[in-house]
Specification:
The protein is an alpha/beta fold and 198 residues long. It has one domain: Spore Coat Polysaccharide Biosynthesis Protein SpsA, Chain A. It has 6 helices and 7 strands, in the order E-H-H-E-E-H-E-H-E-E-H-E-H. It is globular, with a radius of gyration of 16 Å.
Length: 198
């Protein structure tokens, strides 16, 4: 399988996930949101046989935790900041293109993953911008060797996408997918729930 899909997530543990969201809606609601989004995302994305799906989890010591994700290949993200852990996924043994996504984007589904792989046919990198200045997807064709060190990047800020793009050689051809919303705070959570009720 030449196409690889990496889903990055924290193991759903009460009081340990979605900390910014939890400050506004409470630990239990934040935990339920993260657990259900992750279950749903894994269930939908691993069905597609156009790519091999791997769930990259943190922290590594809870890699075997049960949370309803079903039978899916799992790997630990390892140590370091988000950039170091993402780089590990892109430089893991294997061939072909890699698409990496987060787990807190309600609108994310197979259609966006297919678009990213298609875009890699004409580009070296693909990003899925988030409305807050970050990104919900990063993809590499791995044609130009190993990923650079993703630093310095101001993670969890409005500068994350711009900082990440600055880490790459300017000769890389870059494509942008549609901008999607992630759910990191109470306002985004309430907006997501309102859309679900429609």
């Amino acid at each position: 399988m030449r196409r690889q899909l990496a889903i990055f997530a924290k193991v759903p543990r009460l009081g340990q996930v979605k900390r910014r969201l939890a400050r506004e809606i409470g630990d239990v609601a934040a935990w339920r949101f993260q657990r259900e989004r992750l279950r749903s995302l894994v269930r939908v994305l691993q069905r597609d046989r156009q790519w091999r799906t791997t769930l990259w989890l943190a922290p590594d010591r809870f890699l075997s935790a049960r949370f309803g994700a079903g039978a899916i290949h799992r790997r630990g993200q390892g140590h370091g900041d988000l950039g170091a852990r993402m780089r590990r996924a892109f430089t893991a043994p294997g061939r072909g293109s890699v698409v990496l996504v987060g787990s807190d984007i309600p609108a994310l589904g197979p259609a966006q993953i297919r678009k990213a792989f298609r875009a890699l046919g004409r580009n070296d990198l693909v990003f899925g911008p988030a409305s807050d200045g970050g990104y919900w997807l990063i993809a590499s064709a791995r044609r130009r060797g190993r990923m650079p060190v993703l630093a310095p990047v101001r993670w969890s800020s409005k500068h994350a996408l711009a900082d990440t793009r600055a880490c790459f050689d300017k000769r890389h051809r870059v494509a942008l997918l549609e901008t999607l919303d992630d759910v990191d705070d109470g306002k985004a959570y309430r907006s997501w729930r309102a859309r679900r009720r429609r």
